[in-house]
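User: Hi! I'm a student and our assignment asks us to look at how structure tokens line up with a sequence. Could you show me two examples?

Assistant: Happy to help. In each example below, the sequence comes first and the structure tokens follow. Example one:
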Amino acid sequence: MRYLFIHQNFPGQFLHLVRHLTRQGDHEVVFISEPNANVLPGVRRIFYKMRRGASPETHPAAQEFEVAMLRAEMVAQTARNLKNLGFEPDIIVGHHGWGELLNIRDVYPDTPMLGYLEFFYHVDKFDVGFDPEFPDDPALHARVRAKNAVNLLALNISGHGQTPTLFQKSTYPDWAQDGIAVLREGVDLQACAPDASLAKRDFVLRNVLVRTDEKLVTYVSRDLEPYRGFHSVMRALPRILDERPDARVILVGGDGVSYGARLAEGSWREALTAELGSRLDLSRVHFVGKLDYQSYSDLLKRSDAHVYLTYPFVASWSLREALASGCAIVGSDTAPVQEFIRHGRNGLLAPFHDPAGIADAVLELLENKALSQRLRRAARRDAERTLSMAAYLANYEALIEETIAAA
């Protein structure tokens, strides 16, 4: 088959599928994206370059849409050049989030298309107004609604949509949901397999030493920010450290902002460290920045209690990989996490806004070995049952076949 993938950041969410297809050896795989250094054998990459960003004269609420239309224009032009060279795909697979697919029907009007639909924004639920520490500003509602301009156009393009979770599907309008398939993303269960031997020897990560007689509490986020509960985790640490002198904490993530508002100056790490002051024993709290995959994976496997929090928003890959690694997880009682973790069954849930409740749950895992082991085993079993990479790829191929057959 001939596949055309489209995603501004190659390979994006399509890494595992593209790798799977090229390994089969009997497909032609072409990928349109902006230039980057990523390489996958067997993939023919076609680049487009943005001529400019949004105009300063454009209304602030419309600037994101302007950029999306510029992307749509460039992708369509690139695809047209590809078509003129004789490439006719059997299926187009792309991400709707940046507008790249909006004009693709002008080039390939009859080609089946499967679009990735990530999140539909609302001004009255989910992430907006969720955190009382950062009060909702009605003046920004117009910008939130405008973020759905691409979403709404995407939902009206003929084709099929897919999304990874029931929660993400639920964010879309009722009238659109019948056209959105839930395709649960898988993880590499072999790479993320539990490794009990890591707890039987001193564990070293960068300049941090975790001894065998110490308990390791972990937290991972692309960036250390409120959307992923960084502020709640930090405020839970003084009590955890006070009650467990043998506890050491490693927090993974950068000082940028992936989601939500930026501080006027400095980072959330600096702000929370300053807020907690002497209550936080920095000799046992380690900020290690961003890690290579192997170091990150080993950290999850060594963890004695792993904390994952998020606003009602898209769940991170790290939650799936923590489950597969057999982590004892404390998750936030928010809808995206509840889809993966059932309290007392394969992890513990705590209120997102309650540092004391988060500390209680972490301490329970550190103190109750039988509970911790039971939750670890259940987390791994559930990952094997619901997060298998082989099943994910088989389901993906089946959805592609259904999309082609329905065209």
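Example two works the same way, sequence first and then tokens:
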Amino acid sequence: MKLKYFSLTLILLIFAFLLSGCDDAKSVDQFSYVIALGLDKGETNKIKLSLQFPISGGSEGGSSSQSSSSVTYSVECISIEDGINQMNNYINKPINLSHCGVIVFSEELAEEGLSTYAYTLTNTIEVRPDTNIIISKSPTDEYLKNATSPLEEVSARYYDIILSSSEFTGYTDDMTLSDFFYSLNDTTKEPSAILGSLSSSQSKGNDSSTETNAYKAGEIPISPSESIQNSGIAVFKDDKLVGELDNIETMCYLMVTNRLDKCTITIPNPFHQEETIDLQLTLRNNTKNSVSTLDSNPFIEVQVNINAQILSMTQNAEYLTDENLPILEEAVNSYLKKIISAYLYKTSQEYHSDISGFAKEAIKKFLTWDKWLSYNWHDNYQNSFFKVTVDTNVRSGRLFINA
């Protein structure tokens, strides 16, 4: 009988606990969830903080509304926390950053240095380490307001989708807050970030590039023009922005760092100079990087192994005959060697920034940490010489064999 009463009492206590809510608990609809955060230089204060929120219904009034699925508000403030506190007071709901898909910094702010903001955001428990970092060539509030698509509602998922295009284009890379933070504190790799911008109705290719299909964010000639483009990589030296890579240079970065999934290139046709050939590239196996540190001029060897699938085809094409196949493969080798070498010397001699992480190979040559630090790779990388070797295996398109 005592056991019966004890069991009944225990069951009643469990139900009472489950049915009694916590006084300090908050439901989901009591928060305002941020899907994107932007930071720019302020005009009346230190920074301009922009926050994008999803909305469920029709557009709200005012200049901050850009679509029926999201709204962006901006505030001039002295710090991120100060801005969020002011926004809390304006919205009358606690702001939550746990669904923030991207953090967008303006070029102008990035040139001054991002370490303070990177440390603050990394220290914010709500911000996910895999939140993507974008450096915008346009004002960050304008970037967020134009992050719209007729094919997808603007949400945290929307940013995941548009950034996943790097997996099949090679135009940019998946660069996160944790990647950026660790690179700031790493002696073997400089930070980098995704390059973004509003597209322009006067968009045109990079005049400084010899490649007709080389573009940075905002330069791709596509319509409608009022949309965002993420193409290229923002290059940092320490925490400061020092340069940009276009989409062709970004493909080279992905090949060298073993991060390439697939990409498409266009090369001159070695058999008909007035024509071009489109090929889809994948890595056949991991790129091999080796570094010699016998003096203050590092010698870096890069060996890239590529599978190339022919995409463009003409009626009389005979690319895969025994005589022509080696000629085509050598043309691909020559093209890739040229653009990879140009990328490497640009990062070393112009930007002085080892975003490829060659120092991870160089550090193996030193027996002690003090000897590694005294070599001063951080400054010596600009004196590097490179030897690039490319071995390409060309296959036909699906007309003949399986991809």
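Here is something you could point out in your write-up. Residues 28-245 form one domain.
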